[in-house]
């Protein structure tokens, strides 16, 4: 379980990252803060594109930033939206690749927690690298 200081650190970072969202089409700003096993934080925001399908979600921005910097062990992620919206299926799957047991925290724009629980509750029986063996 997360201690309260860590939870608040993650939530604050997700809210801050949300301020940097580039969302001129949906106007739905998302911020994410991803905690590594070593205690480092990687943040991300959604980055939309005029070719809508090229849009990248906040959670994947954070994961790709972390992995490209050498981090692969993740313990928690906070996601901030105006209404505590849930991660999309693609982001659930991308998180699952590295951290099936990661704690997911969903907060609204005031930082109010609407959900806190394991990714496996959001993505039961997800596709694992082992399935390719
Ligand atoms: N979005 C995210 O950043 N994360 C999600 O998991 C759900 C959706 C973004 C994508 C798009 O920029 C906007 O929210 C509306 O779909």
Describe the structure.
The structure is a single chain. The protein contains 4 helices and 5 strands. It has 133 residues and is of the alpha+beta class. A 5-stranded mixed sheet has the order 2-1-3-4-5. Strand 3, helix 3 and strand 4 (103-107) form a beta-alpha-beta unit. Tetrahydrodeoxyuridine binds at residues 23, 26, 28, 30, 46, 48, 55, 57-59, 87-88, 91.
Which ligands does the model contain, each kind named once?
tetrahydrodeoxyuridine
Q: Kindly, what is the distance between the CA atoms of the first and last residues, rounded to a whole number of angstroms?
A: 32 Å
> What is the CATH C-level name?
Alpha Beta
**What is the architecture at the second tier of CATH?**
3-Layer(aba) Sandwich
SSE succession: HEEHEHEEH
Figure out the total of helices. 4
Number of domains as seen in the coordinates = 1
Q: What spatial form do the alpha-carbon principal axes imply?
A: globular
**Rg from Cα:** 14 Å
Summarize the structure.
This protein has 133 residues and is α+β, with helices and mostly antiparallel strands. It is 30% helix and 22% strand.
Keyphrases for this structure?
alpha+beta, binds tetrahydrodeoxyuridine, 133 residues, 4 helices, Cytidine Deaminase, domain 2, 30% helix
What's the helix and strand layout?
Blueprint: H1 4-18, E1 31-36, E2 41-45, H2 58-68, E3 74-80, H3 89-98, E4 103-107, E5 113-118, H4 119-122
Parallel strand pairs: 3-4
Antiparallel strand pairs: 1-2, 1-3, 4-5
